[in-house]
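Box 3.1 — From sequence to structure: pectinesterase
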Amino acid sequence: MGFAVAAMKMVHRGYIVVLLVELLVFCSFMASSATSSNDMSTAILIRVDQSGNGDYGKIQDAIDAVPSNNSQLYFILVKPGTYREKIVVPADKPFITLSGTQASTTIITWGDGGEIFESPTLSILASDFVGRYLTIQNTFGTSGKAVAVRVSGDRAAFYNCRILSYQDTLLDDAGRHYYRNCYIEGATDFICGSAASLFEKCHLHSLSEGNGAITAQQRGSTSENTGFTFLGCKITGVGTPYLGRPWGPYSRVVFVLSFMSSAVQPQGWDDWGDSNKQSTVYYGEYKCYGPGANRTERVEWSRSLSSDEAVPFLTKEMIGGQGWLRPAPTHFMRGSSVIVEF
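Predicted structure (token representation):
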């Protein structure tokens, strides 16, 4: 109470109401924290700025500052710049949002190649991660596997991000994931892994000058409820890429209501040299359009889905998104202060 009285004496009467509102928001937050450890409307704000005007100059240092096994939302705001870092979000640090303000000006870059799980520029091992307005790239080049982003935690979402490399760009490894308005670029198997993921309104661009595959999904059995769904996406390229090939015998990939440029290989799908997989994979298309969507020359073991068959791929139900996708926080905490805006 003494703090409130002292503060009121320092401001003009016209601002008393604003101060009271902020105090009420803070008190409401503290009260709700006592009853719920997962208040997703309020985040603890950490700023990363290479110029020295933030809390940290490196993104990894900001992640390291988040307590292990935290239950509160941490919002790490990354100011524009090129951050040359190899970053890991550990499994014991859930509920982190890593956000730039514009993907073209907030760039995370590294250049490791080789082993698929060791090369990523950014590795997400924790659950409930959100990435926003970032460019994440691996600059290793064209001579081997070079992952830009590895996502191995459950309930991860990326919005308005650019993910760039050449081979195995996005290792969509395990868990349920959501990508919206993202640009993903590569040449060979550049979206790969075992996850259950929905890509909505994303742009997939193939750098392959031949017929490298866009996807390599790794579903291993019919009991696994995993697969990649591309809803309302766009495919472009410099060569003639396949839509996908099977990393696992029961690989599942579906393109729905998506634009396919003339770059798409007319046969659409490849069996990766194993004809036995033709009878076990699930490769479908539904109401796609553009010159590359013509199914006249598609392999006979791919599917043109009916309206009923397409229903499970038209919503976020496959990833259970209604239960865990969260809006951006509306209030931010720094110490004991409530900040309504950045």
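Summary of the box: The chain is about 10% helix and 30% strand.
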